[in-house]
User: Fold this.
Amino acid sequence: MSFSHDDPRPEHPSSAYCIGPGISLPDGEIRMRSGAVSLAKATAQSTGGVMSVFEITVAGGRPLHLHENEDECIYVLSGKLGVRVGKETYEAAAGSFLFLPRRVPHRFWSNEPGTRLLLLTVPGGVEEFEREHVAAKTEDERQLVYAKYGIRFVSEDEGDPPISSNADSSR
Assistant:
């Protein structure tokens, strides 16, 4: 696949890098509203838009939601994670891998203190959502951030896909 010179994505990187355990890229540590600490291992900027990767120590979890633009993968490093994807619920122990497709409602939560995971999103860029979400001071501001990034919270009753896409996926 080739892209035009007008392609808005960052240029694909030409050099490799290594980020050790418990360390993030510069300015890559995000303390989420849930209390979880997210360490960015890869961002849209560092991967040319291909993916974002975070090392997260889970504290609580988010309500059921979906992403219009990103697929997510989770690899459980330690502890136990509860995960709901569509109508399925999983208990994922250390070493487990989960795939969460875009536009499918999902949520995850810690079933054990200190649960750690790697979260990968494709394409990259969800770190910008996290930064803006944390910075939003009011519920109205948060709603604007959700809409901007195509993230939507859904009721616990909302079922399996397909879920219609009404967000702009051009970001």
The chain has three helices and eleven strands. The CA atoms of residues 75 and 97 lie 5 Å apart.
